[in-house]
What does this fold into?
Amino acid sequence: MSNTAKAQPAPVASEYIPLKARNVDFEWSGTPLHWVPGDPATTHTINVLHLLLPAGERWFVHVYKQVLPFIRDEQLRADVIGFIGQEAMHSQAHDEVLPHLKELGLDPTPYTAQVDWLFEKLLGDRTLPPGKARQWWLMERVAMIAAIEHYTAFLGDWVLGAQALDRKGCDPTMLDLLRWHGAEEVEHRSVAFDLFQHVDGSYRRRARTWATAFAALVFLWQRGIRFFMEHDPTLLNGKASLREFLRAGREGVLPRTGAIARSIPAYLSRTYHPSQECSTAQAVAYLARSPAALAAEAKMTPARTTGGA
Ligand SMILES: [Fe+2]
Ligand SMILES: [Fe+2]
It folds into this structure.
């Protein structure tokens, strides 16, 4: 048997953690339009998350509810249910930023309408007969979600360690949203991959759907930045530029292109497993001091006391 034939994803068991959704709330009234002070390009690059994630994470939940009956492993089923709970909350939390952007003069509706169409129609259930075609489409989407989750974990890990955002004086509420979300992405980074391995696991499908997901993310992201820069009511001739992206990477307020490039062979390695990257301990440590996560915990405590009485 060749080495390639033997190579299998190698999980790191100590990185595993059971999942729970946190019922967070954010108060946006004090958050300025350019919440990365003096840096609209970086603000809007990160703001694209608020355009893509509400529909994208709703789509994850929609697809995963269809996969649940095919799971034959009780721990994985519990992980997928935990994942669904966390992603539903993420989707809602990012969605709630959009009315605030609109109040500040930046109406995201023209872009989010297109993103909704993409996830609900193009990547939706399609009218397929029960059987092979329907199953093929479900597996394609499960594999795409695993590829996207490689990048949500990458971004989560990055934002947890991006001290340059604090030094620059970013809005604390937005930073908490990004880090609470990022920490939960790191917590559940293995679930989508494990689910894909469990129901399909084809390396060819993993590589092919990675290419689709990566190309789509780059396309949607640069389009989203352009949209925000062009519609920002405080900018004359606002434009997205690669030079600004590279500058922000050097400053540490966005991921560096080298790190993004290195994430590609990592995912395409036959021995890749998401638990080999990021740190569950770092994520848990942030969640233990996140203002939103602590407030969510405090909301739960009286309910538990009452329930136990
Ligand atoms: Fe998420
Ligand atoms: Fe996720």
Summary: Residues 31-304 form one domain. The chain has one domain: 31-304. DSSP finds 14 helices and no strands in the chain.
